[in-house]
Amino acid sequence: MLERDVGQPTSVTRQDDIGGADATTLITDLPYGPKAAEVAREAVAVALHGTEVDLLEDARLITSELATNAFASGKPPLVLCVDRMTPTTGGLEVEITVTDGGSSHPAPLSPPISGEEAESGRGLVIVGALADDWSLTTGTHGTRAWCRLICEAHSTTASA
Known about the structure:
single chain, globular, 31% strand
């Protein structure tokens, strides 16, 4: 656990061996305010340091959208969890979860369709387009937005 100044997120990072796969988890509190998305993007960059640029960019964008939605629609506390797993078969799996203290709004059954002129409302559409899987569960005592990104192992063949 890292020490923090008042108002700064706390991060916990652990590494373990899950079924032969290497796994790292980063958990951090997000500020309940407009800085939530920025802090979330920075935390994802730390958690996914050294990964492919496309995966990192997608993860940062998705995380920004999930954190923004949590701040805009939920109540404190906001918490980000990033699980980075390297399966024994290779590749990389990333699970991103943002939770908040609940919402009085019901969960949409599918991403909303926004008009071209709308200034908001595209967050879950972006998440759905970039993630390999995702879900949103809302309730009065907590909301959980979750997604998975999978980067397949690249096979290399030697030339004879």
